[in-house]
Amino acid sequence: MSDIMTPIPFGKLMNWILEEHKAGAVFGIKRPFIADPEKNYEIFGRKLETPFGPAAGPHTQLAQNIVASYAAGSRFFELKTVQKLDGEDLPVSKPCIKADDECYNCEWSTELYVPQAFDEYVKAWFACKVIAKEYGLGAMDGFQFNMSVGYDLEGIKLEKIDKFIEGMKDASETPVFNECRQWLLDNMDRFEKVTKEDVESISPNVSNCITLSTLHGCPPQEIERIARHLIEEKHVHTFIKCNPTLLGYEYARKLMDDMGYDYVAFGDFHFKDDLQYEDAIPMLKRLQALADEKGLEFGVKITNTFPVDVKQNELPSEEMYMSGKSLYPLSMSVAMLLAKEFDGKLRISYSGGADYFNIEDIVDAGIWPVTMATTMLKPGGYQRLEQIGQIFAKKDAVSFTGVDAAKAAALVEAVKTDKHHVKAVKPLPSRKINRPVPLTDCFIAPCQEGCPIHQDITRYLQLAGEGKYEEALKVILNKNPLPFITGTICAHNCMSKCTRNFYEESVNIRRTKLEAAEGGFEAVMAELKKPEITSDKKAAVVGGGPAGLAAAFFLAKGGMKVTLFEKEEKMGGVVRNVIPGFRIPDGAIDNDVKLVEAMGVELVNGREIQSVEELKKEYDYVVLAVGASEKGVLTLESGETMNAIDFLAAFKATGGKVELGKNVVVIGGGNTAMDTARAAKRNEGVEKVSLVYRRTRRYMPADEEELVMAVEDGVDFAELLAPVKLENGFLYCKKMVLGDMDASGRRGVVETDEVVTVPADTVIAAVGEKVPGAFYEANGIALDSRRRPQVNQETLETSVKGVYAAGDGLYGPATVVEGIRDGKKAAEAIIGRDLSEDIFMQADAETVYGRKGRLAEEDKAVSDSSRCLSCSSYCENCVEVCPNRANVALKAEGMDKHQIIHVDYMCNECGNCKSFCPWDSAPYLDKFTLFANEADMENSKNQGFTVLDRAAGTCKVRLAGRVIDYTIGTANEDVPEGIAKIMAAVVKDYAYML
């Protein structure tokens, strides 16, 4: 594997476009944007059908990148920067992009040699002109290219850079221009709409404008000298790219901290070393006057990326450049300042966190053209541009009349609380599964992989979306007997894994489940018949919480007679007796109990089981789902604390009339602590509830949803406090400070000498419950060092034969769905077979591709299944996020799903696909790879193949380290059938890639 990209010759590039278009796509763009040629913005004396496009970066480095961007809707292309360092002389650490949330990169200018970059831009110029006409995407002159050059005057005056600029201004005498023109003229028979006259009319004036990019620390005098050179000597319209450092360190640091990016590390060095605001303003005024004198347009590009420190090995460098959603508030702040300073008369070209959600407002403020990168680095990729194009298709094109400073200021103010830009309270957990990506059939649904019981989520979402709630509920009940409880309070790990998190927000899987449960309950209950008893054995389940209910349900489903014992008067366990009613109504719990009872389970309430031995006299098997009933204890130097579970039970029993006083402190940071604090806020007589935790809320173990609800309820978060003693109505705490991050990304804490007091009439400790070790011990069950029952991990059987442990009583407090998992596992061990099946139906391709690349937030008025991307049918994340189009989805005869191959010669190892692959893998390293030739194959460790002779079908294949000679269509025991089919597809149907 080499990180050196190989540019595609123009003839091959056009052949790829023409052949792939027959299957309905252009470099993977299945939904092209069709512009109205009558609607035009204008800048630099040229037309723009839309006011946006890709920023100078990974999406404008190769010709195919530019073509894909054009097909999706871009019309303004800021070409990747050229400078004196190029090709192999340019040091770029790899991987160089990390875009899973806010974006970071450690790449800068083109990785090609400058002459190669020039050729790529000319090839793209011709290709975009041609497909505009051939595929009816817009006018042939409806787009324009913007050069980006850097980084010092000496470098820009070098022959290769000067030749680049002059060639872009007039390419008529360059070999590549004439090569492209001639190929088109020689292949006119392959076009239906493009004529000879069209080809001959393609202008050699590729670009008449430049964005000047300078390195951090470039002196203002040097910037001005370069700009004067471009205006006076090169006679090009000129924009100067500004840095966010114009804002000053204090402003930037406070804004980042206030928006939740306090962990982003940067010092004041660049702020002191970069162009200063007081120097920038007079310089820009001088240059604007000069451009006016020369009849050229002048403005600023806002902004460059923002240098920050590498702290958690995000990328293999010491410094990286921040962009995306966290850059937007900084960039827009610079726009606000300059718009005000110049009374809107200074033209601003914008880049910095623009996307579907904010671009309309940016352009409405008079700030355009707008270029983007981060949004296209996420799933949906280039296809996201089509949706943005539709925004402007519905609007009239406007002329530039100035930047509206008031609107820019309003955007800055709005972003401070905008959910699309404020950092989430808690970072999104990794959506990767701990297995390597397979070479074939790699599509999986991360939601299902994240669910402890592997529910068939995509299938019941499909059914619910069609209004088939009865069928959807049946799919749910296949693996989950508690749809109402899990549809209401499930911790929904599935949703944290959802690919939609990389778009805007997860599909609301939990809500959809509840809708299916409510919509299908009566029909399912009317049809549900208790299974026939097929076993001569009997089982007892102790504990009527989620684990016990699940164990009983599946044992009955397996044909065994089951009795479920619960010591309280009603089934439901902690969900019934502890979790507050404002979280889940009793009716939801009742419905799930009815489902279990309908399976023929005998329910016995109000009976506490103390002796397993006695039960064993009547029952062959016993499942202990007794919960974590041993209370966690927090001991203070003085003063007593109330146990959180005791409080919650009392709160529920008294209807919120527990004697607590006016000021309540809850100690803890988990979900139970959040429930406790929220309940205390509702308790009669309580005026203030403070939640004390030794770290900040970002490092609390509670789910983000629970944290947000506590904040919304008015709970006061007393962070970085360690409780010491309770005296005279105050909780005395030691002040803590955050330390360095550990390998997991969690920051340690360091105690200080400072003491902080928090008003407290009652202190409630939510510090975790424990399994009832004494109960197990009394019943002869062996315990581990933490006094938990020792079990067979595969069956959950304890040291006592025929006795199983499940739920919170196994390892301590867990989630409802983890309890269901344990109950089902124990039941299957007892019955001796699987008690559920995997239910999957391939999603409709047109429907799924119609959703990809379209940002759409939840609409509670309709089923949220309409946002599901059906990842197990059509994942293709790696295809979508690759700027170079180096991962390709193809159809192989005899294989149900699309297959992914990696195209080696198009890849520069940016690593972006790794961030979004749901497997613990990097597709550019781990997927089956197509090599251009044997030399490239030998220079790589990837499993893959190269075609030696297409006509003969001969290939050289590497699998598991072995190199094999293989001929398409023949049987070879060393080549798996799926791999053989993929190679056959490439040779027969995708030969344009060879």
Q: Detail the poorly predicted runs.
A: none
Q: What is the average of the pLDDT values?
A: 96
Number of DSSP helical runs: 37
How would the global form be characterised? globular
The secondary-structure class comes to alpha/beta
Radius of gyration computed on alpha carbons: 32 Å
- Report the helical percentage: 25-40%
Q: Please give the order of strands in the largest beta sheet.
A: 3-14-13-10-9-8-7-4
Main β sheet profile: 8 strands, parallel
Proportion of β residues?
Answer: 15-25%
Q: How many beta strands in the DSSP annotation?
A: 33
**How far do the termini sit from each other?**
17 Å
Description:
The chain has 37 helices and 33 strands. With 994 residues, the chain is an alpha/beta fold. The protein has an 8-stranded parallel beta sheet with strand order 3-14-13-10-9-8-7-4. It has a 6-stranded mixed beta sheet with strand order 28-29-30-31-32-33. Strands 17-16-15-18-27 form a 5-stranded parallel beta sheet, sandwiched between helices. Helix 3 (114-134) runs parallel beside helix 6 and helix 19 (483-489) packs antiparallel against helix 21 (509-527). The longest helix has 21 residues, at 114-134. The mean pLDDT is 96.
